[in-house]
Amino acid sequence: MLSYAVRGLTRRHGVGGHSVLANDRIDLDVRQGEVFGVLGPNGAGKTTLVRQLMGLLRPDAGTITMFGRDVRAAPDLPARLAGYLGQDDLALAELPVATAVATTARMRGVPRAAVREVRDAILDELGLTAVADRPLARLSGGQRRLACVATALVGDRPVLVLDEPTTGLDPVARRAVWGALQRRRDAAGTTVVLITHNVLEAESVLDRVAVLESGRVIACDTPGQLKASVSGDVRLDLAWRHEPPADDPTVAMLAGLATTNGRRWTVRLDPATAREALGRLTTGAALAALDDFSLATPSLEDVYLTLGGASRDLERT
Amino acid sequence: MTIVPDARDAPAILAALQPAPSLEPSSEPSLEPSLESTSGLSLESSLESTSGPSTVPLPLPIPMPARLGPPKMPLATRFGTAFGAVYRGQLARSKVGRIPLLFVASFQSIGILVLLRGILDVDNTTAAGQVVAGSTVLVVAFVALNLLAQRFGALRAAGALDYYLTLPIPPAAVVLGTAASYATFAAPGTVITAVLGALLYNLPITGLWLLLPVVVLSGVCLAGLGAVVGLLAPRPELATIAGQLGMSIVLFLGVIPADRLPEIGRVARDVLPSSYAVDALAAAFQPGVDWSKVVLDLAVCAAVGIAALAVAAVTLRRVGTS
């Protein structure tokens, strides 16, 4: 069963000469019970896509069905089936965390008698119990975002649509969110559609990922398959303490291949060459200049760049 | 950089890396973490390690649950439940910042009462009754038109209407729930204004129970209008200005006795729904109350109120989903 089937979805923002094609003939299938990611740089059309999935924007062309039913014929479907986390939280800003969660639960039809239990469970799950009585506006940015995630998750919808749920969260909170999503997926078969521009998040929690660039889906597969499809190369990152010896043959070879960012070099090489080069560097004269290095298989960022993605604002951590 | 990694350990690390079975990217994705961990310095991994991966294990791809049927369709939430939840949430919002508003709303009306006391002939109970009723309805207008227009204007500008529009609730519950929470703070102000006015102008207070239906119905009416104004305003500043303008109109047309208005003023007064609330309440201060007229006035208020609320609900959906 497909939670979402999107066909030919097209949406333009603005009119005339200043209009932007935010979504351009997007086709997507989101299977029930998967964590599906939308990865892309700022301005790729990710938010436009999920706002259409939630019925907040009307497509110019194309169709969206949820569990086989056309969303345009039944505009109340997304609100009933999906919990949504948007980018702005002004509606909740002045509410204490516990009240925001409890009233949202009521609005999703949680019975009055069960609200307290449901509320406390989610606050505990996301580590918000200590700040339950404080208004969202008085929390740190990360905790505030986490409280909004709690309101999106409460009430156990079969689908969750989350616009950058972990932006601004510290690693502990981020893992708490990932864990909460995974638990719902495993226990109840919840479908999760989440936007991210964080490569680490995409690689560690997503079952499948669609890579968006300028309103188009340029790739859609599991993170592993995407990475395997683009290249057999590995990435060697080097950071130099000071200028490396230019006469060192290994350094000269790498310098010719590297993309540099100050004293940080990134080189894409086949695995054997990379291992050899690193071996020579760390045993030779260049070692004195070497500050840091890492060797890694291709990341989704490499996938994005290889597929023709132009933007550099994907996050790695 | 504060942490200086010892790159001299690199050969040892590299040696440990050597027996790694494969660097082929086609191998299992789980290989990558082990590769990453061989980096000389991984700020990322040192950060991540503070998160205590043991408390919440990093979720790795888990086999999907077998064969799921279509989910049970959750029901839309009933109006009463949604109204209650919006009301409770908005009330919690206001605990800190809204108390001063209570004073502002009634001081303004009390000020007008005192001011006109010096001008008006107190023996004219018709005019006196209307001044008191007009001032009382002004408290409602302040909250419903002015504050609600501001609130919805701000929500629209921030894109925060998404929160309500993605919940399975009737939009009218959002408008009415928000209005009711503001009204909770305005209610004492209407009582104070009406009682103080009756005392100042020597009017009977036996008919003051009419205050309840008048405040509720004019509240629904003006709240609906206030929400529409706020939602339609292209910028939040315009919503504020429009709300204040609306309040001023209610003030002038409500407080100035109808027989002293010019012709155009009387027409405007007949169009303005709050006038009917003022008339109904003004009747309560008169010796002989024409009940059929009071009921008719209140019925007009109720009808306009329902219409305004319906328009506000449609506007909320229309503006929020473009």
From TrEMBL, chain A:
<dbReference type="Pfam" id="PF00005">
    <property type="entry name" value="ABC_tran"/>
</dbReference>
<dbReference type="GO" id="GO:0005524">
    <property type="term" value="F:ATP binding"/>
</dbReference>
<dbReference type="InterPro" id="IPR027417">
    <property type="entry name" value="P-loop_NTPase"/>
</dbReference>
<dbReference type="GO" id="GO:0005886">
    <property type="term" value="C:plasma membrane"/>
</dbReference>
<dbReference type="InterPro" id="IPR050763">
    <property type="entry name" value="ABC_transporter_ATP-binding"/>
</dbReference>
<dbReference type="GO" id="GO:0046677">
    <property type="term" value="P:response to antibiotic"/>
</dbReference>
<keyword id="KW-0067">ATP-binding</keyword>
<dbReference type="GO" id="GO:0016887">
    <property type="term" value="F:ATP hydrolysis activity"/>
</dbReference>
<dbReference type="InterPro" id="IPR003439">
    <property type="entry name" value="ABC_transporter-like_ATP-bd"/>
</dbReference>
<dbReference type="InterPro" id="IPR017871">
    <property type="entry name" value="ABC_transporter-like_CS"/>
</dbReference>
<keyword id="KW-0046">Antibiotic resistance</keyword>
<protein>
    <submittedName>
        <fullName>ABC-type multidrug transport system, ATPase component</fullName>
    </submittedName>
</protein>
<keyword id="KW-0813">Transport</keyword>
<feature type="domain" description="ABC transporter">
    <location>
        <begin position="4"/>
        <end position="239"/>
    </location>
</feature>
<dbReference type="InterPro" id="IPR003593">
    <property type="entry name" value="AAA+_ATPase"/>
</dbReference>
<keyword id="KW-0547">Nucleotide-binding</keyword>
TrEMBL record, chain B:
<feature type="transmembrane region" description="Helical">
    <location>
        <begin position="126"/>
        <end position="149"/>
    </location>
</feature>
<keyword id="KW-1133">Transmembrane helix</keyword>
<feature type="compositionally biased region" description="Low complexity">
    <location>
        <begin position="19"/>
        <end position="54"/>
    </location>
</feature>
<keyword id="KW-0812">Transmembrane</keyword>
<dbReference type="GO" id="GO:0016020">
    <property type="term" value="C:membrane"/>
</dbReference>
<feature type="transmembrane region" description="Helical">
    <location>
        <begin position="295"/>
        <end position="316"/>
    </location>
</feature>
<feature type="transmembrane region" description="Helical">
    <location>
        <begin position="238"/>
        <end position="258"/>
    </location>
</feature>
<feature type="domain" description="ABC-2 type transporter transmembrane">
    <location>
        <begin position="98"/>
        <end position="284"/>
    </location>
</feature>
<dbReference type="GO" id="GO:0140359">
    <property type="term" value="F:ABC-type transporter activity"/>
</dbReference>
<feature type="transmembrane region" description="Helical">
    <location>
        <begin position="210"/>
        <end position="232"/>
    </location>
</feature>
<protein>
    <submittedName>
        <fullName>ABC-type multidrug transport system, permease component</fullName>
    </submittedName>
</protein>
<feature type="region of interest" description="Disordered">
    <location>
        <begin position="19"/>
        <end position="60"/>
    </location>
</feature>
<dbReference type="InterPro" id="IPR051784">
    <property type="entry name" value="Nod_factor_ABC_transporter"/>
</dbReference>
<dbReference type="Pfam" id="PF01061">
    <property type="entry name" value="ABC2_membrane"/>
</dbReference>
<feature type="transmembrane region" description="Helical">
    <location>
        <begin position="99"/>
        <end position="120"/>
    </location>
</feature>
<dbReference type="InterPro" id="IPR013525">
    <property type="entry name" value="ABC2_TM"/>
</dbReference>
<keyword id="KW-0472">Membrane</keyword>
